Amino acid sequence: MDCRLRSYEIRERFLTYFEDHGHHRLPSASLITHDDPSLLFTVAGMVPLKRYITGELTPPSPRLASCQKCFRGQGLRWDDIAEVGDATHQTFFEMLGNWSIGDYFKEDAIRLAWTLLTEGYGLDAARLWPSIYPEDAESERIWREVGVPGDHIARLTDNWWQAGPTGPCGYDSEIYWDWGGRCSCGRANCRPDDECAGDRWVEIWNLVFMEFDQDETGRRTPLPKPTVDTGLGLDRLVAVVQGVRSNYETDLFRDIVANFAARSGAVPGSQRVAGLHVLADHVRAATFLIADGVVPGNEARGYVLRRLIRRALVHGRRVGLRGGLVPGVAAVMAIMGDVYPEIAENRELVESTLGTEEEAFTRTLDAGTDRLAVLLDTGSATIPGDEAFRLHDTYGLPIEVTAEMAAERGVAVDRAGFDAAMAAQRARSRAAHLQVGFEGGPQLPDTRFVGYDTLEADAAVVRIGGSEETEAVEAGLADVVILDTSPFYAEAGGQVGDIGELRFEGGRASVLGTTHAGGARLHSVRVEEGTLATGIAVRAVVDADRRSRVARHHSATHFLNQALREVLGAGIVQRGSYVGPEHSTFDFSFNRALTRDELRDIEARVNHNIRANLRRSVDQMPLSEAKASGAIALIDEKYTESVRVVDFGGWSRELCGGTHVNRTGDVGAAIIVGESSIGQGVRRIEMVAGEAAERRWQETGEALLSAARALRARPAEVPERVAGLQEQVRRGAKELEEARRRGGGLALPAVPSKVEDLGGVAYAVLLVESDADAQAIVDVIDRLFAEQLGGDGVAVVMGRDTFAIKVGPAAQARHIRAGDLAKAAAQLMGAKGGGHAGFGRGGIKDLVQRQSALSGIRDTVRRQAGGDEP
């Protein structure tokens, strides 16, 4: 097993291996499933290939291979640490896979997989255990023929795959990696088919053999073209190849976790480290979702993304995170940006989206913690269950956070009451779902929308409360309010909802956002002064400046749509959009990147029509008449029989319910600031308009002048000078990498050292006297740990400027912590150190104290292990 392989090498080795065996390499599809309405996200490598597998489309080759971006998070729970954040589970992951559609079958599939694992990656065959369906004699025969002993083949009744009650189905065969007896449930001869409760076995590859067609009666007949569908999780494979127990210790995650650890109060070895894993996973997942076109919202994909971001923020607060989520994006980009350029191209969008969501939710979360503080100050020994549920439901404060903060004050939480309130809410949710399905909508009062004509209106509060109706909301609290009349535009069609104020006698409430449910407009409000109650009169006031900025961007997006059709052809199909006050995005079907000339032409056409100051007209007409008039409609949108058509001077004409400027000249100007891919065959253009465009021009001009001054060049010479500097940096980076590799390739051992047994814990020390940087030391300790300690025990590698310590699971079980050892040793040598339970590192300032530090490490390990001095 080559523990020095990096994740990008492991990924590429898989794809190249299957290419060499006649497979066509497919690019990763988007996380958004455009052709499968049954799924919100791409959850497996086979999802983009369904139409090939069913025969609906002809594949480019009967043999296919890919590394597919996947996301599984529709069922996110606030307290889901038990899975996401443990050693092997993430929401976002990469699925390696190979497929045979009517070509090879079990024989070749098994042999290809086995050869790649044992020869391509050098995994120990004795630690690979395949599983089969008990009746699948053919797979058992093939596994025996490739060299797997019969007693290493597990038999699981779960090794049967089918898409549904009818259709393709067949046996599958999983491949498990054995982490060794020290990780088992404690029973002798633990096996994958023993339903082991330990973490000894990790599934790394699943080979699915679709060979039958099952009908309604359960009868199975052989398929005319049997299909092989395999899935190999890259994250788990990298962990196995690199010899680390947790996916979060691999180079796919290590630097992301370190980014959050450096900005938090998480203590190595504590339960809060799982929170760092959640942060790393969720920010990585959010980065990919946003880059692929998902916008935080209250429905479908947007709701999942918003929930993901909020869950990350909650865990950030639990671990004492400073600086928020956005700085973690840089670590994600550094690891994944070269492999998936779409995330690097959309970095600004990712960071701005995360920042906006964080700012909005932090206010709500702050209100929740303030409310909790009030409850704790009452002096009661217990927080009532209904209050704990209110903190969860209204403020997004997880019950675990409530309980933790309460415990610090010696106060208990009525968990039984909380669970009862939660169960009641779920019952109401189910009832509302049935009502929507069978009676045409939940019983919410309709709101008369007047926001096309005015930004202020007198209204009455007809309901307060989302999932549970209440009579009033006091100052400092937040809730959902429905008015009989409203000028607030509700989030729809890509346009954000309005914000503003509700003013009433004796008080006011901030409107933080507006959505809709059926004919009702749901105003998310926070009461600033007084008490907002059902039945009272209010003055509803929209934030006029923000509405104007949103309108400029929405109208500019219409202009962009028309200009795209003129430059690229009328076949352009809109796939989505986001329209906000600071920028807009427009997603459309197109199979290549736009050239610089095309983008210039498109932007010029938009601004030409802005300067033409075309008048806007709005008409309500039958859908058939609107389409006949040439109005652009969204291909996937479901329209009512009567539709609203927005027309600008006969040039731009679309079906749209959003808010717009009166004349094109009101937009001022528009600038295209980005064009990128967000998935296979889908492009995105980002644009700024109005004041945002002015700011962009100013910022760009100032940046150009600053760069010119720094380079002592004229502004027109800056690109050429920068290109020269980039070339110098590339050469320097190459030289550094070569030097690092030379350092990492030090022969083992640099100074001979035997492996000691300290109370049952294997212990090895290696001194590196040559100049080796921190990365070289890490490379060496990875090899030492794997080659001399077999993946467990305690390894120490000491250079002249830096050192590293690695501790395996069995040693950790004896309370030996690498981070604690590194911190103490570094202090002794006049420097700083730290880390987590499995890995620690530090600096060396006083080389004279190196031997004393080594003695201290050895004494601590011996003491913790319970061993005697030899």
UniProtKB/TrEMBL annotation:
Keyword Aminoacyl-tRNA synthetase carried by entry: yes
Compartment list: Cytoplasm
UniProt GO molecular function: alanine-tRNA ligase activity; aminoacyl-tRNA deacylase activity; ATP binding; tRNA binding; zinc ion binding
Cofactor note as given: Binds 1 zinc ion per subunit.
Keyword Nucleotide-binding belongs to the record: yes
Cofactor(s) needed: Zn(2+)
Entry keyword set: Aminoacyl-tRNA synthetase, ATP-binding, Cytoplasm, Ligase, Metal-binding, Nucleotide-binding, Protein biosynthesis, RNA-binding, tRNA-binding, Zinc
Enzyme nomenclature, EC number: 6.1.1.7
GO cellular component: cytosol
One GO-annotated biological process of the protein: alanyl-tRNA aminoacylation
Alanyl-transfer RNA synthetases family profile domain segment(s): 5-699
Superkingdom, natural source: Bacteria
Reactions mediated catalytically: tRNA(Ala) + L-alanine + ATP = L-alanyl-tRNA(Ala) + AMP + diphosphate
Main location: cytoplasm
Binding-site residues for Zn(2+), renumbered to this chain: H554, H558, C656, H660
UniProt family annotation: Belongs to the class-II aminoacyl-tRNA synthetase family.
UniProt function note: Catalyzes the attachment of alanine to tRNA(Ala) in a two-step reaction: alanine is first activated by ATP to form Ala-AMP and then transferred to the acceptor end of tRNA(Ala). Also edits incorrectly charged Ser-tRNA(Ala) and Gly-tRNA(Ala) via its editing domain.
Comment on protein domains: Consists of three domains; the N-terminal catalytic domain, the editing domain and the C-terminal C-Ala domain. The editing domain removes incorrectly charged amino acids, while the C-Ala domain, along with tRNA(Ala), serves as a bridge to cooperatively bring together the editing and aminoacylation centers thus stimulating deacylation of misacylated tRNAs.
Protein name, as recorded: Alanine--tRNA ligase
Organism in which the protein naturally occurs: Candidatus Amunia macphersoniae
Gene: alaS
